[in-house]
Description:
By secondary structure, the protein is mainly alpha-helical. It is built from nine helices and four strands. It has helices spanning about 1-5, 25-45, 50-55, 55-75, 120-125, 140-155, 160-165, 170-185, 190-215; strands at about 80-85, 90-95, 105, 115.
Amino acid sequence: NALDRMIVGGSPGLSLALPPIRFHRLAACRRHFDRSVETMARSRTEGTETARALSNPAVCDAWNSLLQANKRLRADRLPMQIVHGDVSPVNLVWNDPVPSGRDAPTFIDWDCAHVGIRLYDALGDVLLRAPGDRPECRRFDPDEVRAYLRGYSAAIRTPLSSAETRCVPMFLLARQLEDLRQRAAVAAGLTGERDAEYAELVRMRTRIMRQLRPYVDEEKGPCPWT
């Protein structure tokens, strides 16, 4: 609600190479990802396990699904406002209890703040970010998404529109691909344990994307998300 009232005082955009995905430049984001994977393929010395994981045909299929869904849903036409740019558990800090007796949450790491789509930002990397030691959490749970959106809807001043909520599965898929895009951009320099760690994270994201695609492609039919 605070960001909704802010007036843009500087440039509204970011370099395309920076997160997050911008839906009005989705094809360019895809090309940025492809170039990064090609750079990894040429290096052939470092980041090889991550490169193999990123070259999985399922990743290409997910990009194609995202591009087709955006043509249908036109997220690039949704209203935009200033957004954080990297909503995730690691960027949420809980302070000492305030006078009401409840902890006060604060967001940190605002270096990707920009003018974007509020619901894509709010979904962020919250719901499908499973801890490494909790493989049972590496799944897409529609009911969890609906519960999260009910809480978000109850707090925002301007209600979510039907055009926004129809984009929920597409936004979740885009966030998985954005994580892969940023890993691809640095993977050529990975070695040893870091390469293996990134590769496993890519495989985890790829499994989740397979679960999301039927909702993005509408094979599951339209779902009420709030």
